[in-house]
Amino acid sequence: MTQGQTEAFLAALGRLYPPGSMHTDPAQLAAYECDGLTVFRARPLAVVLPTAREQVEATVRLCRQFGVPFVARGSGTSLSGGSVPVPGGIVIALNRMNRILRLDPGDRLAVVEPGVVNLQISRAAAPYGLYYAPDPSSQVICTIGGNVSFNSGGAHCLKYGMTANHVLGMKVVLATGETVEVGGTSLDVAGPDLPGLFTGAEGQFGVVVEVTVRLLPRPEAVRTVLAAYPRLDQAGDAVSAVVAAGLLPAAMEIMDRLAIEAAEAAVGAGYPRDAGAVLIVELDGPTDEVEADFRRLMEVIEASGPTAIRLARDEAERLRLWKGRKSAFSAVGHISLGYLVQDGVVPRTRLGEALARIEALAARHGLRVANVFHAGDGNLHPLILFDDRSPETVERAEELAAAIIEACIELGGSITGEHGVGLEKRRFLPRMFDPATLDLMRRIRRTFDPDQLANPGKVFPDEPGPAVATAPAAATGTTPAARPAAAGHPLPDPARPGVLAGPGGGAP
Amino acid sequence: MTQGQTEAFLAALGRLYPPGSMHTDPAQLAAYECDGLTVFRARPLAVVLPTAREQVEATVRLCRQFGVPFVARGSGTSLSGGSVPVPGGIVIALNRMNRILRLDPGDRLAVVEPGVVNLQISRAAAPYGLYYAPDPSSQVICTIGGNVSFNSGGAHCLKYGMTANHVLGMKVVLATGETVEVGGTSLDVAGPDLPGLFTGAEGQFGVVVEVTVRLLPRPEAVRTVLAAYPRLDQAGDAVSAVVAAGLLPAAMEIMDRLAIEAAEAAVGAGYPRDAGAVLIVELDGPTDEVEADFRRLMEVIEASGPTAIRLARDEAERLRLWKGRKSAFSAVGHISLGYLVQDGVVPRTRLGEALARIEALAARHGLRVANVFHAGDGNLHPLILFDDRSPETVERAEELAAAIIEACIELGGSITGEHGVGLEKRRFLPRMFDPATLDLMRRIRRTFDPDQLANPGKVFPDEPGPAVATAPAAATGTTPAARPAAAGHPLPDPARPGVLAGPGGGAP
Questions:
Q1: Tell me: domain A336-446, CATH 3.30.70.2740, correct?
Q2: Class assignment of domain B100-218?
Q3: Sequential DSSP letters for B463-496
Q4: Which A-chain residues 472-491 have CB contacts (< 8 A) with chain B?
Q5: What is the ipTM of this complex?
Q6: Distance from the CA of A254 to the CA of which of A330, B108, B123, B264 falls in 20 to 30 A?
């Protein structure tokens, strides 16, 4: 656009937004420059804060008229650069569309606006004994619109599935300005799974303006066990034994020695400091069922060679067991100046192999890697530690992150479990999909967004669209406490120990 | 096409298929004229029986070159007219692509060709203690390709979900002749849910040539209870009470008085003949868990006012309890000359209301309706009984079927739970989706199939494409035993009492 066109666009945009709901001032725009990954940064032309669907429609139509790209976002906790602005484009921040429109305990569903914070749904449903199951670690701050766009997971997704398994329907303002309503109020829907198509689309089909989610009955009972092992592979074997015993825990999480060290330094979770790995297993469900499963679980755990076993006797103890795990990402900031969170998937049966390869790769790159992972579904979150004062080290960390993803692909896994492709992983997409399938994905995208204005430059490695700037040497998780809440890593929420607070795509 | 073009097309097609793998003889084509619904009939130009993906690709490319529509099908058990041929088009029958390509007990998955029969997967997985969960009543004959295309359900989908929840990936020959590979070997896949988009697409995007499905550990224990009640609403209340108690049975099925009468006349299942309704509840899982849940279930059932309770003490008794339910569709042939199976969904909380409306509508139309339904998820299967010798009665039955679907829509439900839209329900599609959403669905379809050659005339009410002939007064389920197995209703399989055999989309 010429300067004149840009001014005309901004003037027209300004007519859609009352004072205080549109930002163009650089100081205000700064808070929207990056997502939770912080590696990629870009400054938008403007940020708008709509409060109604009609405003979103008008905004998207205006963008189309002027050919201006747009990125919709919530709290910006995504971890793949997916909600980073497009230079020359605008950001549609949905945080003010944060109403719970309907909560139906009988049919166990909630209809919410995209800016509703994940945990707010469970809080609103609590009086009816219901809750919303997907629980990204950032759930106190990440929004449901971001969860939908990245198909967010969480520790309890082993039993309950990802966001896609809990979204019944949605309203979406397509990039063409039309609003469509897909899905409904039941999982039995006529025709192809359109809600599934929008879930995980990383904002490239349009702007989600309403979501209908399933609510589940709050489990009557919960049992949480922590087991410590001398070596990481023993914790992995214990996971295999739990699965082989026919148990389906709500969560099975593993942390290695370095992750334990970080968690102890950060939050003093009380994990055994000499352990090579800890495994957290949680069962939930009706009391009788949980107690029956718990007896079986303990037999399996006791036979797996642990050096220590801790049981949560009450909710306070349970929260303490989870505290280290839930704060692991930010905790590594206490033992390293910079860090990168990777997100890859391997078949569960190849977990041991994957961990051995990560260890070898880390040694070859001369860097430390802390492993924290959803062991039940093979979703790894290696945390690569480095000194962010040295550009050479930053580059080496990025190489290691890429090598780990290559290893996941070679082992028959996926380049992302829950953080999405975003900017970070688009170059790996051709490793996951053959040219015909990639072409099909592009064609589907153009069906929704013929002009490629919705979050362009993400996901697809070679999609035409504005390039996105990378900060020179900003691949860091340093001094998270000094970052503004809307642009840094998830922060430990002082009001809710053990729960991550921080800005909202929602992972892991 | 001109006569000459048709001849050129058939000659070129013949060069792709060795003798015995292409039919053009009217007597052979007759077996492919209709699906399990039997209302809609059409004769194809030819039927081809490929054995390899390359043949499917060449066939689809040839169809595109000549502008010939094609319908892919398996055993043809679909119940909405979805696999009925398009006049002037060909049928690609996938029954000979029936190999299990890989069975991986460690990663719990199977890679199969589309013509593999549903139950064959579980049989192949049985030595490893695994099985494939979705269980349409037609599972001894319906094929996995049809299950995928209609997102088939089954009695146990209450706990385990529909086909879409068990498909990890697939290879599809698009209507353009390209082959794409979507999904993978894990539920964590990068980007939008493309396998979900193909699951339920009713063959309109292309031909599924390979499917990767999840396998589950066979439940260690199963408990099956049948409770009889004086009235249907009492059975419905019992279902609500089971749900309120926090139990998640594998299946909860209800049959009303007329359905019981039919089942008794057909298979002598031994249900209490004086009951107004029977409820079958099945629990499965680890032994301890099932026993704990069973005690709780029995408390709920005993408090729900049943006149009789029957427990299955062994597998033989369990199969007997299921026998009446599983054969219910064909059983009504024993008490009525003709019948129509309807398939609608209502929110579970409005089941009672829906049943009362069906009763009133049946009375108004002067017809009897037998109700058989998946009570746990609100999926109704009213069986409309009529005298097929009278065209007027046939028409009235179709009107009643339509009125029942209207009622489901008004109650906030869906026009299909698992049988698909096909030909039967395409006129209701605009009642489910607004014009913008319908237009989006059409655009997505054209992305995969720009010339609209893949199963045209189905799903969309006004899609250009060859019209499909309706038999003058053939809306019947009469004398099923006299029908060729590939073109009638699911038949009771004499070799497997209590299990439906019959031709393969797979429902309910």
A1: yes
A2: alpha beta
A3: --S----B-TT------GGGS-TTTSS-EE-TTS
A4: none
A5: 0.77
A6: B108
